[in-house]
Amino acid sequence: MTEGHRQQLTRELLLGYFEEAFTPRSAWQIGMEFEAMGVDAATGVRIPYDGSKASVRSCLKHYLGLRGGDPAYEGENLIGIDSTWGAITLEPGGQVEWSSRPQADLVLLAEQLDAHLRALDTTADALGIRWLGDAMDPDTAIDDVPWMPKARYKILRPYLGSRGRLAHRMMTQTASIQCAFDFEDPGDWRRKFRAAALLAPVAVALFANSSRADGGETGYRSYREAIWRETDPDRCGLPSVVFDPGFGIEAWLEWVLDTPAIFLHRVRGLVPAGGVPFRTLMERTGCKSVGLEDWELHLSAIFTEVRSYSYIEVRSADMQHTPTIMAVPALYTGILYDPQSLGEALELCVGHDRHETWSEAMDSAARLALDGSAGGRSIRELAERVVALALHGLERNPAHAGDAESAGRPLLALAEHRGLDPGAVPEGRS
Q1: Topology (CATH) of 3-30+151-416
Q2: Cβ distance 193 to 312 under 8 Å?
Q3: Measured between alpha carbons, how far is residue 48 from residues 55, 93, 142 in Å?
Q4: 319 to each of 60, 109, 173, 176, how far by Cα in Å?
Q5: Taking the complete model, does pTM exceed 0.90, yes or no?
Q6: Which portions of the chain are predicted below pLDDT 70?
Q7: Domain extents for the chain?
Q8: Which class for 268: exposed (0-12), middle (13-18), buried (19 or more C-beta within 10 A)?
Q9: Are 389 and 348 within 8 A, CB to CB?
Q10: Which residues lie across from 210 on neighbouring strands?
């Protein structure tokens, strides 16, 4: 479709974008994204895009040779891979992000992840790369991190840099695990979105793995989370509308429409959108009009703790070490895909269900992790009960767990590492 013949976007059409994604429970799936930061194994220096054996470009080429797929280029620059096993894309500082294909259960998702990690390790061994185990680069100074040659980041870098003092740290020095979930109808969307939002302080604390930067301690257990809170106030954290009693898909749509747009698709590639609300762009006609591809591009620049495309994405977990990576999708699957655990999680988090108390809980979780507080309650106590809810939810839903014992094992391992005892919380007493 040419620029002059885009379908005119309307509020009703964009509301339909979410409504068309309604999925019956029997067809719900789980997706995840996992980011890895590489350094030269001999020097500890972050690998550049090109110019050495231990480079991002070499990594992509070697990975492509191992697993196959369709390479993605911008000009002569190899910037990703797309295949039946998922997709590889590059984050601004050369973080290699793997996106799974959606899977029906956690066991199948874990098999996909294992195959990716094996290929990643084989690639690292061949090229002299070491993957960092933290969600924050602990040693490399911000000025020493290479930037990837992608059009998106040439626009995003100055835009976010003008909006938050830690924006460039977020872009180049952090890594996370994100998970995606289906929804059945407006009520199901609202419950899942709200539960994921209220669970964010618990997730930040439970998965905190980014305490160091610039060769020293930061004073935070999850400095990655602290960085996000000084990236762009227009599109990070969560807007207050999420905590309104009548919050739902339509309220979310209105907020997204009022969020400044960063870039647009054009025949010549990505161009700056000028930071005007997307709602304003929809008023344009002819060759300046915007289409659904611009809408989805806009959604990709919404960086809230929870966001929604045709699925709900949760974004509060630091990148984890290999044994506990699957604890992230296990936690959310056990709660969001089990009606009983979902309802109990909403009740459990009522103490911080206002925007102000939620923000305070997020700050506390970032600084103190499980030693923090949320709405006057111990986050450690909340986390113990949330883990118990997730494990019970997995037991009640073998269709999405695959095997409850296997699916829950990484979550139990993380709980044990954090000194939690979810077995002490009886089912129905959370």
Answers
A1: Creatine Kinase; Chain A, domain 2 (3.30.590)
A2: yes
A3: 5, 9, 14
A4: 20, 17, 12, 4
A5: yes
A6: 1-6, 426, 428-430
A7: 3-30+151-416
A8: exposed
A9: yes
A10: 222
